[in-house]
């Protein structure tokens, strides 16, 4: 026989999900906290879904206060389970152990509606860790790079870089990116035209918050220029560099490995105006109005 309080406590533990620890600091890192947290949680939590998200950030100390970390625990829907300051004292491993103990207490003994920010915190032997600049706002900046192929109008190698800004616990982010590609061939007997795009894009990103699998979609405006160069004849009746603008969208799926993510992406671009090349006394050809590209990339937080 199990008493009613014991049954409720067991049900609460089994219903609690695993925790994705995300640290904006290197001391302690999310990996270190996760290692200390894992043995403190029931095994049933590892398979539960959706996961909770623990966010750790450096905060500026007051005139009479020592430096501290701010620890928040969120449900997958963004609801705050716990919010607390942890003093920056001790080694990275000791701080990771203290943070893990707090998260485990929140996970196994939930107290809805209770704010823990000003409650006492575990402290250990003196040592200080530097504050990470820019973290007071709770924003995170990540950089990405990718390489792949453009598939419309021929095959070309393509490369892209981007910056993504957003709150760690939010599904919405802002993105800016730039890309370039090698030339493709447009045959215009008795010669041909080599053409390529250079692009700059911005947009909004909506993403999943799963701790292991990354899924995101983005859309927004794109601009840049098309470069055209003729060969095998004298004249191409198109500007060598022509400004263009349009819209772009991308779908990305990948795997998170600690703070890093590796992903595959499919992206399309649609240009508002077409470009045409013509041989004097010969053929005329149109550069495609749309593009499709596939790429493999990696993202890492930089702030």
Q: What's the quick description here?
A:
With 303 residues, the chain is mainly beta. It is built from three helices and 15 strands. An eight-stranded antiparallel beta barrel has the order 5-6-7-9-10-11-12-15. A four-stranded mixed beta sheet has the order 1-2-3-4.
Could you outline the blueprint of secondary structure elements for this entry?
Elements: H1 4-15, E1 19-23, H2 30-37, E2 52-59, E3 68-74, E4 80-87, H3 92-108, E5 140-150, E6 156-166, E7 172-181, E8 184-188, E9 191-207, E10 213-231, E11 241-257, E12 260-271, E13 275-278, E14 284-287, E15 290-301
Parallel strand pairs: 1-2
Antiparallel strand pairs: 2-3, 3-4, 5-6, 5-15, 6-7, 7-9, 8-9, 9-10, 10-11, 11-12, 12-15, 13-14
Helix pairs in contact: 2-3
Order of helices and strands: HEHEEEHEEEEEEEEEEE
Query: CATH topology of the largest domain, which one?
Result: Porin
**Beta-strand fraction estimate:** over 45%
Class computed from helices, strands and strand pairing: mainly beta
Percent helix, as a range, is 10-25%
Question: What's the architecture of the largest domain in CATH terms?
Answer: Beta Barrel
User: How many runs of DSSP E, i.e. beta strands?
Assistant: 15
CATH superfamily of the largest domain: outer membrane protein from Thermus thermophilus HB27
Could you name the CATH class of the largest domain? Answer: Mainly Beta
Number of domains: 2
Shape: elongated
Distance between the amino and carboxyl termini: 53 Å
How are the strands ordered across the major sheet? 5-6-7-9-10-11-12-15
Cα Rg: 26 Å
Count the helices. How many? 3
Biggest sheet: strands, sense, closure? 8 strands, antiparallel, barrel
- Residue windows where pLDDT falls under 50 for at least 5 positions: 7-17, 113-137
